[in-house]
Design brief:
single chain, 358 residues, alpha+beta, Muramoyl-pentapeptide Carboxypeptidase, domain 2, 4-stranded antiparallel beta sheet, 14 strands, globular
Length: 358
């Protein structure tokens, strides 16, 4: 895969040719526009998952991997033409040719450096596929991505095992294994359908991608993207990989889950990872949210008595609610309550109030 950087903004050209930043605060794959993406900071993902588990008092990693695997299988499969799939299943084509391309794309999306370790594909129960993943953006999400990719390529349900082999490297193995009947029936993936909005990001005159992407440094050999100013890590992650995790957790564990996700994100936001410079004014924040693919900010009123926010076409709304609540608490150094409502059209309304005003 050609990793040539844009001569003007420095972003690998394949990133801006394979992904589209649209006018309603959404990001999609250029060749599969029903697949929505988000360009989000990832250092909070595993702490977020641990925080949710702590709040609800239940281990959730296996559910994250299982749900992410199902979503990845559908997502991955949408890119593979049926003729290619038939050639793989008929053993007329080595699926490594396809898998290697997606590993390269994953590096450019910032999810870590994935390399093939060993593989057997004879289409029986002794098959396996092992990769090493260095500096994964999230351990359970990286595991689920590999398992789902092999399922998408071979059409066979997979089990998994993984082990930490060094400070920042994991070996992950997929192998044929049927899934429990109940889990196999629940599929949370919903195709994304773009609706026009009114936000336009300033564009690079050379590659056509958002000019603001020039504020990030790509390290393709490591599979890492870093904000040049904050030095925080970021990745292009499928929205369809994360939302199903929260939906599955809610299905299994009940109504406590949405509040737990919001609370875990609020706690992480207040932990010192973010500052008020991350939200300086409405216009700047609107641009940041659109660049991240989180939606189209239509209203932001922040004052001492509380905050009101309306975000149309919202993605990852529970994370956005917790992030907004945490930002307000940082700015005014108060504890708060939060209420939110997500419409059927995907528009999010958030209200944050200091405790003394509730």
């Amino acid at each position: 895969m050609d990793l040539k950087p844009c001569s003007e903004c420095g972003v690998p050209e394949v990133v801006t040719s394979e992904h589209l930043w649209l006018n309603n605060g959404d990001i999609v794959h250029a060749r599969a526009q029903t697949s929505r993406m988000v360009f989000i900071e990832t250092e909070n993902l595993d702490p977020l998952f641990r925080g949710i588990a702590q709040i609800i008092g239940s281990e959730i990693e296996h559910m994250i991997i299982t749900t992410g695997r199902r979503a990845e299988r559908i997502y991955f499969g949408s890119f593979i033409p049926e003729k290619i799939r038939e050639k793989i299943l008929n053993k007329e084509m080595d699926y490594e040719l396809v898998d290697a391309v997606f590993r390269d794309l994953g590096r450019l999306e910032g999810v870590g450096n994935v390399n093939l370790v060993d593989r057997r594909y004879e289409q029986d129960q002794n098959d396996y596929d092992t990769v090493s993943i260095s500096e994964p953006h999230s351990v359970p999400m990286a595991v689920s991505a590999h398992i789902g990719a092999i399922e998408g390529l071979t059409g066979v349900d997979q089990g998994y095992r993984y082990e930490k082999v060094s400070a920042d490297t994991y070996n992950v193995t997929a192998f044929p294994s049927p899934h429990p009947e109940g889990l196999s029936k629940r599929m949370w993936f919903k195709p994304h359908h773009h609706t026009d909005g009114d936000i336009e990001l300033e564009r690079c005159s050379s590659c056509g991608g958002p000019r603001a992407l020039g504020g990030y440094e790509w390290y393709p050999e490591r599979g890492i993207i870093v904000n040049k100013i904050t030095n925080r890590r970021i990745a292009l992650q499928g929205d369809a990989m994360l939302n199903p995790v929260f939906l599955e957790l809610e299905e299994e564990l009940g109504d406590v889950v949405p509040g737990a996700v919001v609370e875990a994100q609020r706690r992480f936001t207040r932990s010192g990872f973010y500052t008020m410079e991350d939200i300086t004014d409405e216009g700047d924040f609107r641009t940041k949210l659109a660049l991240m693919g989180l939606g189209n900010l239509k209203e932001l009123v922040m004052r001492k008595k509380g905050m009101n926010m309306r975000l149309d076409n919202a993605a990852l709304h529970l994370i956005t609610v917790g992030l907004s609540q945490g930002f307000f608490e940082i700015g005014f150094n108060v504890d708060t309550t939060v209420d939110w409502e997500l419409s059927e059209e995907g528009d999010l309304q958030v209200e944050v109030k200091p405790l003394k005003y509730t």
